[in-house]
Amino acid sequence: MKTIYITRRETFNAAHKLYQPNWTEEKNNLVFGKCANKNWHGHNFTLFVTVKGVPNKETGFVMNLKKLSEIINTQVIESLDHKNLNLDVSYLTGIMASTENLAIAIWDQLANEIAKNGGELAKIKLIETENNFVEYFGGKEPF
Ligand code: NI
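YS: structure for the whole thing
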């Protein structure tokens, strides 16, 4: 039984701001800088969804990547692409719209659907800018 990891890449763009309403504007600007801009700003996000498994004897696949792409699009891309993360996304209501929280929310939207299709979600990697990205392993860090 040789476990291998497969990854599907998808992209979306979305607007957000990082702003803690309980804080003064001064403190928000100090902590979040330009990300606190009250009239929003946007990112072109790149999402990598990694699934773990053993290749099927007949197909050689851990999971059909076309099916994985379909799940990612239905479960998350449709609700995030061209949206305002602070206002438009039901599963982000009341949550600070940071890349960290977004990656965790994406995991929660995907894990069950992937499991139903025979895969095991192993990692979400979400790239916000050329220099900033986050990785989430569902609370089971591999190191
Ligand atoms: Ni931002």
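YS: worth flagging: The pocket of nickel (II) ion is lined by residues 16, 35, 41, 43 (CB under 6 Å).
IM: good catch. Also The helical segments are 25-32, 65-80, 99-116.
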